Amino acid sequence: MPVDPSIILSDDHADLVSSFQSFVRRELVPLATEITDTGSPPPAELRSYVRKRSAALGFYAGEYPQEWGGAGTPLTAVVLLHHAAGGSGCALAPYALGGSDGPSPLLRHGTPDQVERYLVPLVRGETTRCLALTEPHAGSDAFRLTTVATRTVDGWVIEGRKTFVSNADRADIAIVVAATDLGEGPTAGASAFVVPMDCPGLRIGQRYEGMSGEPLFELLLERVEVPPDAVIGGDEGVGAAAALAMDNLSWGRLIVAAQSNGIADHALRLGVEYARSRTVFGERIGGFQHIQEHLVTSRAEVEGSKLLTLACARLVDGGAAVPENAALAKLTATQTAVRVVDRALQIHGATGWIRGHPLEFLYRHVRMMTIIEGTTEIQKVIVAKAMGLE
Ligand SMILES: Cc1cc2nc3c(=O)[nH]c(=O)nc-3n(C[C@H](O)[C@H](O)[C@H](O)COP(=O)(O)OP(=O)(O)OC[C@H]3O[C@@H](n4cnc5c(N)ncnc54)[C@H](O)[C@@H]3O)c2cc1C
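Above: inputs. Below: predicted complex with flavin-adenine dinucleotide.
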């Protein structure tokens, strides 16, 4: 029996995780059977319904404070919700929790007006957003930006080009990170701006088809004019985007780690079930030592990764987090998930390779986990620095 990580939670939060699991089983699994095209993301209306229903039940974006529409849920419990969503195997479950289209942690640093106008509707699941940070020549070195926001008498004019933006086709607002030009010499660092998607001058360029069916987009900004209060955090936010983002990195990375642990758990379960039932050479394949090696090694890696992720989330909740912990959890969980899904597919032979099989989808889906929220190599750079190896 797999280690149930919710044993480390208080009763209240363990109950939260089990009610989320029963919400997924009772409501989302039946709804997911309506999805006919399993190679593409679920239709927009279905995603929107799931977001709002989950928000009404207190799951969606529960980590945000109650006064902003959240539930004040500690990160340890949020991590377990994402784990449960990834582990459920239900295509709609991840959309029941805020992801890259949900409330942006950057908006936690917004002015009271920005929180009211932008963050609260996101937390309630009524709107979605995208984050436009990456540029063709600024990926891992995310703040080497060529998109520039220039201060004018009326506010700001933003010009540039962003790439690999998730959810740009459905978002209500874009959070655009741009180098700040105050007209006083070298740029004053980067600032994050809230830009409504219907703002003149902002348009979607190229659409990139992703391995798992989820597309990414190019965003073009041609003299996009925004008011002075579009900078997240107001005057204090000018030039401060990197510092604000640093503050949130542990959260994002631990959530990706949790999603990856959930996917790995799910793939392992599929592998074990198949190994117990498939007969080859007159024997159950689970009796072959090579198959046991795949499954036992996977089990050891997954259980270790789950505990590391939870321990790191606990440190964040306790206010004692350091960036290298989240980096360690993210790199361990995402690489583990890639390996475990690969092994589970191998155990299924051709059956797992066929389009439409859950492992065929997971194999394509899990691959992004080692790239998003900072690549594996960047997590290693962070840990190496913390070990004094610069
Ligand atoms: C599914 C998906 C969704 C995404 N969504 C968004 C989004 O919504 N908004 C957004 O702005 N961006 C998004 N991105 C982009 C993502 O943030 C970048 O892909 C990521 O930061 C890596 O940048 P890059 O792809 O340009 O790789 P590069 O930075 O060009 O890196 C290339 C390779 O070099 C390695 N490398 C780089 N620097 C070092 C170093 N110092 N030491 C060792 N190795 C190094 C990298 O790890 C990688 O293996 C998304 C990407 C994916 C795959």
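Residues 243-386 form a domain with the Butyryl-CoA Dehydrogenase, subunit A; domain 3 fold (CATH 1.20.140.10).
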